[in-house]
Amino acid sequence: MVMKTEHKASKGSVSVESFQNRLRLRLPRQLFGGKQKYLTLGMADTPENSQLAEVKAKQIESDIAFKRFDPTLAKYKPQSHLTLVVSITEGQQQPTLIELWDKYTAYKSKALSVTTINKDFKKTRNHIGRLPTHKLSEAVIIRDFLLAKLTPNATKRVLTQLKACCDWAIDSELISSNPFVGMSQKVKVAVKNEDETIDPFNKCEQEQIIAAFEKNVHYNYYTNYVRFLFMTGCRTSEAIGLTWNHINSNLTLITFSEAVVEGNRKDTKTYQSRKFPINKSLKELLLSIKPSSPNTDIPVFKAPKGGLIDAHNFLNRAWKTVLSELNIPYRPQYHTRHTFITNCLEAGVSVVQVAKWVGNSPEIIMKHYAGTIRQVQVPEF
Predict the structure, then answer these.
(1) pLDDT by residue (tens digit) across 107-136?
(2) Are 209 and 318 in contact (CB under 8 A)?
(3) Would the pTM count as exceeding 0.90?
(4) Phi then psi for 27, rounded to 5 degrees?
């Protein structure tokens, strides 16, 4: 009889051991009055199974820490009685989670934008690729692994996606039941106060940022782009997607009707176009950059080497670099939009009008921006 200890556990932790080429967990003695107890997992000692065992060990350690440990160990024993959650014919191998996800992605790509598939669906597939198991019968292990590796919010999003995938698989008669039903609802996440995320730049900070871009040797090319963001409050994707065809010939009106996300041109976020009036200062900016005979299809704001601006590249290189040199609290570039909306409200522009200019509903403006106005005076009666 040979026993191999995979690693020596510190006091109070759960360790994974190999006993007669089968994996088991060594439990802390203090849980059982000083007696040594083990949890047999019924799995062969393989690298893949060792990962699963580590996840189970972390689950038990978490339960111990949060005082929800089950001393009967029933909660942690292998569920050999689980029925297969896939519908298969004799001799046909059951589909794995990653196989289902790829089929689901191919199906959804017919209706969703290229951006959504390349961004959101690819991110979920990357998470699936890192899982220690792709068996639907081990959905609990998948959940626990995600909780151990991701934030609760990220875990909730992935589980929601996996449930949607399996719902589709049931409709497509690929599986018979969905093991992820109800899992995302049980993941507790911190409630985010959206008002706290809206922190507009004040007038002085706005001027400092523009001046810093003008002086920066590497990124002064973006100065007018930054000015435009502050002056219109448009979404980043709308500014990148703006062409001279969206601006009338006498420079009095902009039509925001398209957006560019990760190089792909699409509709605006709300799928609706909107008119934005050009004031004197904005007209001067556009006149200073307008070509003598502009091609209506070329972007108003281009990358230094031509073509479309890369939003991520601009944020992570230009924006962060320039703001790091200023003595002001850092906020992401999207706060230029928050700044414009707040400035309009402080200037007395009606909520309805501001909502029309920026492509939000009045309800959203009131909910998220009413608390950011810095100057509110009691009217005279």
Answers:
(1) 888 877 777 787 789 899 999 999 999 999
(2) no
(3) no
(4) -95, 150
